[in-house]
Design brief:
Helix content: over 70%
Strand order of the largest sheet: 1-2
Largest sheet: 2 strands, antiparallel
Length: 294
């Protein structure tokens, strides 16, 4: 009973934080960028997955319903990892691409990775092993005939790739440390790295205990999994909203419009200041980063 209450309270808190994150990113229009586009999709995928988990993980009485719930959970949890992979790709493009690529083209590629790849994996796995979608205890993938690897394999791959991306990103920022640019593009880059530093370990560790919990049905593992699962939405909200410099600047800019403080609004629109009086655009920042890395 205690575990059930903890699951409900924790996931409800996570769901509220995810909803708040999506709403804030949608209404602060000046924050629209490739990073926030990816983050909104990731939050939506995690939101649907956690709502479905909360409502249906134990709905094992009806085989058809349990099968449907398992398919939904498999798809949206995979989508979370695929959008996390998109975060890693975006970090690489921000730090290493010397030229700005077409935003529409990149967005289409990201959607293919984030939404179509999980659909392909789930379609193949469910088509071949539909009897292993749902167990006697939970509406989740069975670990008997290997269908669980249709989730573990892609998830583990994404975690490994993003770990390497984070290492390269942190090395890049170390090289840029002496510049300390106070500009929008730099803040977006720092925000992306901070988000990755939270998402990679949280998602990875969460599902390590998740697999142990579903496999062994050990109470300790279940408690750890529930706590970590609930922390995902809270971690995203804190990292990408509460502690995000870009969001704080945009909030000040919106407030300045309402109060009529034009100076604050102008400050919010400044680009880069590398040397005290020379302003550099986002595209020029990419060139600067590329030269530092060479």
């Amino acid at each position: 009973m205690a575990l059930e209450y903890l699951t409900i309270i924790g996931l409800c808190l996570s769901i509220v934080c995810l909803c708040a994150t999506i709403i804030i990113l949608v209404f602060l229009k000046h924050l629209r960028s490739q990073r926030t586009f990816i983050l909104k999709n990731l939050c939506f995928a995690l939101l649907v997955a956690q709502i479905t988990f909360l409502a249906g993980i134990d709905q094992t009485a009806e085989r058809g319903i349990c099968l449907g719930i398992t398919v939904i959970l498999h798809y949206f949890f995979l989508a979370v990892f695929m959008w996390m992979l998109c975060q890693g790709i975006d970090m690489l493009l921000t730090l290493y691409a010397s030229e700005s690529l077409g935003k529409t083209k990149i967005s289409v590629i990201m959607c293919i990775i984030g939404w179509m790849t999980p659909a392909l994996i789930v379609s193949v796995a469910a088509g071949l092993k539909y009897n292993d979608y749902g167990t006697a205890q939970y509406c989740w993938l069975s670990q008997n005939d290997g269908v669980i690897y249709a989730f573990v394999g892609p998830a583990l791959t994404v975690v490994m790739v993003n770990t390497v991306v984070l290492i390269f990103s942190m090395v890049k920022f170390y090289k840029l440390k002496k510049y300390e640019p106070d500009c929008m593009a730099a803040k977006r880059s720092r925000a992306a790295v901070k988000s990755g530093l939270v998402m990679v370990p949280v998602l990875g560790i969460t599902w390590v205990f998740g697999l142990l919990a579903f496999d062994k049905s050990t109470v300790v593992f279940m408690y750890i999994f529930v706590i970590l699962n609930a922390s995902q939405g809270v971690g995203i909200f804190l990292t990408n909203i509460v502690l995000n410099e870009e969001v704080k600047d945009e909030y000040k800019r919106v407030r300045s419009r309402k109060t009529g403080d034009s100076s604050a609004e102008q400050d919010g629109e400044l680009k880069c200041d590398w040397s005290g009086n020379t302003y550099i655009t986002d595209d020029m920042l990419r060139d600067k980063i590329a030269r530092v890395g060479n």
